Amino acid sequence: MVAYGGQSMSRRLRVVLVRRPDASFAVSNPRRWGYSASPDLKLAQKEHDAFVALVRETGTEVRYLDARQPGRADAIFVHDPAIVTNQGAVLLRMGKPLRRGEEASMGTLLKRLRIPILATIRAPATAEGGDLLWVHDDVLAVGQGFRTNEEGLRQLSNALQDLGVRTLPVELPYFRGPAGCLHLMSLVSLLDDDLAVIYPRLIPVPFWKFLKKDGFEFVEVPDQEFHTMGPNVLAVAPRDCIMLEGNPVTQRRLEDAGCRVRTYRGREISLKAEGGATCLTRPILRAQ
Fold first, then answer.
1. Which CATH number characterizes residue 113's domain?
2. Which residue, 129, 103, 60, is CA-closest to 285?
3. pLDDT at residue 1, as a whole number
4. Which of 131, 206, 227, 250 has its CB surrounded by the most CB atoms within 10 Å?
5. Residues 175-217: pLDDT tens digits?
6. Dihedral in degrees, nearest 10, Cα atoms 207, 126, 160, 204
7. In a domain, 217, yes or no
8. Cα separations (Å) of 84 from 5, 7, 107, 182, 284?
9. How many domains are there within the chain?
10. Is 2 exposed, middle or buried (0-12, 13-18, 19+ CB in 10 A)?
């Protein structure tokens, strides 16, 4: 039986889900998927294997979501179809129509791992994991943009109410519009109870003020490293993290803030498909 829970973004990562890229990931029409180019499948699998090895080096147990999902290129980004709370999982509903169906596959695996399903987000609601950020055990920030709507926020709030969790809506900027992908976690990652890496140019001011008042210190990502996913950093323990290589300024600033930083090569699995280290993982268990 796999233990589960950990309403945190930075406690020690004990168990995580990943999905190795398959033939569906090598899209022939990258524009349809919002990719910058068609990924090379063999290189993508090699990068993903190296990424998983890096995660395992931290002492994290890795489980695979390996059910067939033909035609779902984004299925490697397992962070988005569900969240896992201390009492079980909430299955979400993708805001990107091409991703609909990933939720059911995730739910089947979670049930097999004996993780209860607390709730399932239903139409017309949409909610994606990339918009959901545990600020504290009892505070979940919920990005409100083109992937997670107001009804998604309402259903999430209802689902988490009995757990004593308060949802905090965070209005996201327009950026590239409905066709683009801008999650809350595109702009901020939490690496400790009092440390966040942020892209200040786009982070909503009220949320910046909320985190500041809450005692957070900020590591700022420069403009030139936003598009290489500088803010998308996976904490495997407090101030111990994994990020995409090629962000030297952000990496140095994180290290100056006392973080241990590991980097992975992600030209195919991240840069072409616009999904970073957090997107590639679904934490199942975080513990002190």
1. 3.75.10.10
2. 60
3. 52
4. 131
5. 988 888 899 999 999 999 999 999 999 999 999 999 999 999 9
6. 0
7. no
8. 6, 8, 11, 22, 6
9. 1
10. middle
